[in-house]
Amino acid sequence: MSYQALYRTYRPQSFKEVSGQEHITRTLMNALKNDKISHAYLFSGPRGTGKTSIAKIFAKAVNCMKAPTSDCCCECEICKGIAEGKIGDVIEIDAASNNGVDEIRDLRERVKYVPSVCKYKVYIIDEVHMLSTSAFNALLKTLEEPPKHAIFILATTEIHKIPATILSRCQRYDFRAISNEDLIKRLHQVSDAEKIKITDEAIEVIAVNAEGGLRDALSLLDQAISYANDEITASDVHRISGSVTSDDLIDLITAIKEMNPSKAMDIIDDLIKNGKEISRIVTDLITFFKNILLFKNVPNYNSDFSLYKNERFINLSKTISNQRIYAYISALSEVQNNIKWTNQKRAYLDLGIIKMTDSFELKNVNDNELLYKLEKRVEDLEKRPQSSFTAEQPKVVKQDVCETYESAYDMIKKIMAHPNEDKRNLMLRGWNTFSKITDIELKQVGKMLSQSELVCMNDYDMILVFDEQYICGQIQKPENKELIKKLLNRKQHLINDYVAITRECWNKINDELKNGNNKELNIEEKIVIEAKEEAISEFEEAGIKLFGKENIKFEEWWNMNPNMVKKIQRMQREMMEAQKKLEETEFTGTAAGVVDVVVLGSKEVLKVTINKDAIDSIDDLEMIEDTIVAALNNAFNNVDEETQRVMSQFQMPGMF
Fold first, then answer.
1. Residue 386 confidence class, pLDDT cut points 50, 70, 90
2. Helix/strand/coil for 495
3. pLDDT per residue over 357-372, tens digit each?
């Protein structure tokens, strides 16, 4: 058989050729260079990460004819003989098939003999965790005090199965999963050397499917070469690996996001017909959602990843919120755990899809998304300059009082003219039951209705009073009105219509009607009332902020001395100008001479400077983050102190 698998053909022959294990190769090379060689080593880590390969390279390096050297020359007779397996002084033992105490006793007898060709006898025991307890005990003494010419290298993928007595007698090296960047780099080298036509996206898919193992990556590339006719594409790799393409995942996630379970089920049916395993579909969905989160929240993370340049992926990430992704991943994780212990895997996947497309299940997510949009809108409005809010528009009366007053006044007047107290008492008997309604269609309006007070009604119309204007607006919507009528008229016809107003509005209307003042306010009167209310609100807020609620007493402005009012108005303008000037002033902060920051008086961060020469390691991200926070706190304290100093110069006339 002339053909040799790629992972065997491109097995590294020197430390320089090893991918992704720089922390181990550097340590071993320094030890070889300084002739500080231990008698026993333990290599642990995932499969396909180079444990056995580095063990053989180390065996060549310690026995190289040019030793002591940091790496094997790969040219002398000993290096070539070990690489070809012709020298018997390097013994590789498979502990999975030689795991008994008799094999270890035989090893103990043979280790006494000096090497025939090399300087050291090197025993490489692969899958050492498979040894029996008796075999481990038999190895202890030899491992602790071997002959000077013997070196033991133990390799395992399950370090937790190694007895502590063995661990304490070895130098331990933990191999890590090889990063996708290193895998992609090595796959490009191999494909160029073999003159293989393969797309960059296909190489990325191979690296992702290899899960940190270079041997798995090269084996998958070998398989793709046999499958593809000409150029290897990403779809070819998906077919042979069983993974799901990004286009199929985007289609499936779009159907889920659009609350379309039938379309989602059709896509899953097609995937299963094409040979995709249910567990793989779930895993790929979770990974895809993770990639969306990283793309949305970590700028420039893995910016060369071809998926992050996919237009469909970018558009999808813009339309799906973090909260929704968290809910989807939680549902998929539950499915992933359940399918491990059942033969009905498809049933659990279908249940998970239905759960992710159920609006009732995702109600909290929908509410959080709406709240997030509102918060972002408020933040945008707060960032707008003050002048953009004070342009040319005349002051109008408050919406939660006057607009509701105007639209509801006639109906309220009509209801209060012919009240039916007996019917009102009848309605109030069941009012507390509205919050306990379980009917999904009526549950929400029942909760809103339970927060109202039925203050008055005639034969078929009601006046409902709420503390919040928002609930008034919601319950007045036509669709909610129909639901409330359906709720109240279930057993018999009780109401035709209702009006919902705030308590403040109700108090004003009720007072006016009782006093016989049934006319509406004209627009000039409304503007005067609004101006007075807003002036009082702004003045009280500024006074309490500066002097404390317990140190200040308010009087109605129109009852004050006119000169006093003018002084207060002038001082308020001066305070606003001082505040604006402070917000535009730059303040600095520092921490330990490592970080310097510049912020505005509005506490907007302008600049962060890190002095690399003043820190021991730029890799200590946690220390740097803490230092930045300390510098920002220092700058913000400077802002607060200056604000307090400037504002303390203003004294409200007549307050002290």
1. very low
2. coil
3. 876 666 666 666 666 6
Q: Is 552 left (phi over 0), alpha (psi -120 to 50) or beta?
A: beta
Alpha helices in 494-560 (DSSP H): 503-514, 523-547
**Short-list 30, 111, 117, 114, CA closest to 82:** 117
Q: Are 121 and 88 in contact (CB under 8 A)?
A: no
The highest-level CATH class for domain 583-647 is alpha beta
Per-residue model confidence as pLDDT tens digits over 265-308: 999 999 998 888 999 999 999 999 998 998 888 877 766 677 88
**Residue 555: band (very low, low, confident or very high) from pLDDT cuts 50, 70, 90:** low
So what CATH class is 6-174? alpha beta
**Structure-block tokens of residue 410:** 């006639």
**Structural element, H or E, at residue 464:** strand 461-466
Q: Measure the N-to-C terminal CA separation of the chain; round to a whole number of Å.
A: 102
Phi and psi, residue 524, nearest 5°: -65, -40
Say what percent of the chain tops pLDDT 90.
21
Antiparallel, parallel or unpaired: β 461-466 and 90-94: unpaired
Report the C-alpha gap between 178 and 205 in whole angstroms: 15
Q: Could you count the other beta carbons within 10 Å of the beta carbon of residue 582?
A: 18
- Of 80, 16, 78, the residue nearest 50 (C-alpha): 16
Residue 65 to residue 119: CA distance in whole angstroms: 9
Instruction: Look at the alpha carbons of 143, 146, 148, 153 in this order and tell me if their dihedral is positive or negative.
Output: negative
Residue 579 corresponds to which amino acid?
Answer: Q
Phi, psi of 502, rounded to the nearest 5 degrees = -80, 160
CATH code for the domain defined by 246-356: 1.20.272.10
Give me the sheet containing 453-457, strands edge to edge: 453-457, 461-466, 497-502
Name the 3-class secondary structure at 647: helix
pLDDT of residue 645: 83
What is the Cα–Cα distance from 53 to 15, expressed in whole angstroms?
9
What's the rounded Cα separation, in Å, for the pair 478 and 489? 16
Q: Give the 3-state secondary structure of 77-100.
A: HHHHHHHHCCCCCEEEEECCCCCC
Sign of CA dihedral 307, 308, 309, 310: positive
At residue 165, does pLDDT exceed 60? yes
What type of residue is 176? Answer: R
Tokens of 475: 């319950």
255 DSSP 8-state letter: H
591 has pLDDT over 80: no
> Two tokens at 118?
């090399």
What average pLDDT does range 563-591 have in this prediction? Answer: 78
Q: Give the global pTM.
A: 0.53
Tokens 């231990």 map to which residue?
A: 38
pLDDT tens digits along 467-478:
877 778 788 888
Q: Where are the domains of the chain?
A: 6-174, 180-241, 246-356, 399-521, 583-647
Backbone torsions φ then ψ of 489, nearest 5 degrees? -105, 20
CB atoms within 10 A of CB 652: 19
Residue 653: per-residue pLDDT: 52
How many Cα atoms occupy the beta-carbon half-sphere of 570 within 13 Å?
Answer: 8
Distance CA 531, CA 394 (A): 10
Q: How many residues does the chain have?
A: 656
CA distance 656 to 228: 89
Q: Which helix (H) or strand (E) holds 42?
A: strand 40-44
Task: Please tell me the CATH code under which domain 180-241 is placed.
Answer: 1.10.8.60
